[in-house]
Design brief:
The complex is a heterodimer of chains A (113) and B (114). Chain A has no helices and eleven strands. Chain A is mostly beta strands and 113 residues long. Chain B has 114 residues and is mostly beta strands. Classes of the chains: A mainly beta (113), B mainly beta (114).
Amino acid sequence: AQSVTQLGSHVSVSEGALVLLRCNYSSSVPPYLFWYVQYPNQGLQLLLKYTSAATLVKGINGFEAEFKKSETSFHLTKPSAHMSDAAEYFCAVTSNRDDKIIFGKGTRLHILP
Amino acid sequence: KAGVTQTPRYLIKTRGQQVTLSCSPISGHRSVSWYQQTPGQGLQFLFEYFSETQRNKGNFPGRFSGRQFSNSRSEMNVSTLELGDSALYLCASSPDRGVQETQYFGPGTRLLVL
């Protein structure tokens, strides 16, 4: 069965600092991996997705993630945090064998002035 | 293009009642999925509809059901409501089926069961 673990339900970074949100997955077959962002009172919006092409995936708003099969990780990064990045971020996994998408519990990102 | 719309946005019901939530996908999208979001359980997949057929179902009791119409609009129904059904219900649409498809989410319907 597939699973996703997001380390840290809350992460705080200073404005201008590096953002690193961690995601580890479990899948017995090649996975497809996603990062979604949810702003207050809104639905989820796709940031980026990995579908077995390039291992370094660039997304919107300056975010990127690197697929590391050996570490079963798909961490999300952004070089310089902006106040508008404050939101909840969800990592998700699916595959061709089991096309039910599994979401992590989410990480709430706080940006400190 | 207009985004995914969900109605109503907020709903208050009492235990034992039933509720129907509506979702209009982005024009041209044929797949609609439903999710339940709660603080304790996070985001959980309910079911997916494609071409008016349920293609996939999560681990929810039979009280949760849905349907999709020929114009791809979808409804979700919960019968015999329980307190634990209080949640944000999200609908997402995608152009086609397939695990690689990006899902476009609506703003959700917040259901409170008293």
